[in-house]
Amino acid sequence: MRHYLQFKDLSRDEYAYLFQRTAIIKRRFKNYEKYQPLQDRTLAMIFEKASTRTRVSFEAGMYQMGGAVVHLTTGDSQLGRAEPIEDSARVISRMVDLVMIRTFEHEKIERFASHSRVPVINGLTNEFHPCQIVADLFTWLENRAMGAHDVVNLDALRGRVVAWVGDGNNMANTWLQAAELLGFTVHISTPSGYEVNPQVAGVQGACYRVFDDPLEACRGADLVTTDVWTSMGYEAENEARRQAFARWCVSPAMMAVARPDALFMHCLPAHRGEEVAAEVIDGPQSVVWDEAENRMHVQKALMEWLLLGKVGG
Ligand code: CP
Ligand code: NVA
Predict the structure, then answer these.
(1) How far is ligand 2, taken at its centre, from the CA of residue 55, in Å?
(2) C-beta atoms surrounding 204 within 10 Å
(3) Domain 7-129+292-308: which CATH class?
(4) Residue 312 has pLDDT above 90, yes or no
(5) What is the 3-state secondary structure (H, E, C) of 157-173?
(6) In this predicted model, what pLDDT tens digit does every residue of 38-78 receive, in sequence order?
(7) Residue having the nearest C-alpha atom to atom 1 of ligand 2
(8) Whether residue 260 has a cis bond before it, omega within 30° of 0
(9) Distance (Å, whole) CA 264 – CA 92
(10) Is 160 one of the catalytic residues?
(11) What gap in Å lies between CA 220 and CA 217, rounded to an integer?
(12) What's the CA-to-centroid distance between 74 and ligand 2, angstroms?
């Protein structure tokens, strides 16, 4: 049994397989072909933080594959009344086939996973958001490296540059893990005091370069990306962050120094005029709606792999 808690939980070869399955599963969906390999399987989704995309993509994806979902939140379950996470894991995993969790400290999902009888997927923790980065990488490949026959070539990402403008948060940590595994570099620019911690990300220095000036981080980049100034769980820091992050707004000037064919990505939800200018997120280089849609396709491939292993056809 495998869990999916961090990006580095899968190998490069496993990602190559996952992206190829994603392309097949997406094409089938677009052609209205029924594909229901997860009949009689149930996914429990536990949300300790808000969500739109993660909930809809897992829930719709599971139904499309013939399965069922159970939706739990802190407020409407015993999780909010201090039932130990270990006990919750033992109980829930006796009744379902797969669990997705969105929570606060990463350590909490690890404790759940170590007491679960079934695979556990990270739907976002304070430290990581691997499902989003898998969707972003698929979107990148799809827009820049896949021909008409949907052949996924991970080598296309080698040597490329991703510019990260903003908070050294769960998304930034996960981009670093992806860079290390797949051979690209992250140019990272954060305000002082909001840097990434490579120990939390669990990466060596070779996969990223730090820039004080966000514009310099974007120079020559193949992909420019950012995220909210204040992540869920950090709302008390809102005002301090507003001041510290004022210069970390992805602007048309930043896109202009990136490569002419550079893509813009944002995991969403976005705040126009804060971390990104409206002209950029609503402009021609932005692929944010593809990213959101691809959450569903990559997660269907992930659930298929976790429950059925490698499949043919
Ligand atoms: N990007 C993302 O995970 O969105 P939600 O918070 O809406 O799930
Ligand atoms: N970094 C953001 C991502 C939201 C999908 C957060 O954790 O709130």
Answers:
(1) 14
(2) 10
(3) alpha beta
(4) no
(5) HCCCEEEEECCCCHHHH
(6) 999 999 999 999 999 999 999 999 999 999 999 999 999 99
(7) 231
(8) no
(9) 39
(10) no
(11) 8
(12) 18
Helix (H) or strand (E) holding 73: strand 68-73
Over residues 197-212, mean pLDDT: 96
Catalytic (active site) residue 129: yes
Cβ atoms of 142 and 165 within 8 Å: the answer is no
State the Cα–Cα distance between residues 225 and 213, nearest whole angstrom.
Answer: 15
Is CATH 3.40.50.1370 what the domain over 132-289 is classified as, yes or no? Answer: yes
* Per-residue pLDDT tens over the stretch 210-262: 999 999 999 999 999 999 999 999 999 999 999 999 999 999 999 999 999 99
Tell me if residue 295 is catalytic: yes
The pTM assigned to this predicted structure is 0.98
Give the length of the chain. Answer: 313
Angle at the Cα of 235 (from 265 to 295), degrees rounded to 5?
30
Question: Cβ distance 306 to 4 under 8 Å?
Answer: yes
Helix (H, G, I), strand (E, B) or coil at 91: helix
The owner of tokens 């908070």 is 167
Q: Do domains 7-129+292-308 and 132-289 have the same CATH topology?
A: yes
Specify the pLDDT at position 242: 97
Domain extents in the chain: 7-129+292-308, 132-289
Span from the CA of 121 to the centroid of ligand 2 (angstroms): 16
Give the residues surrounding ligand 1 with Cβ less than 6 Å away. Answer: 51-54, 124, 132, 267-268
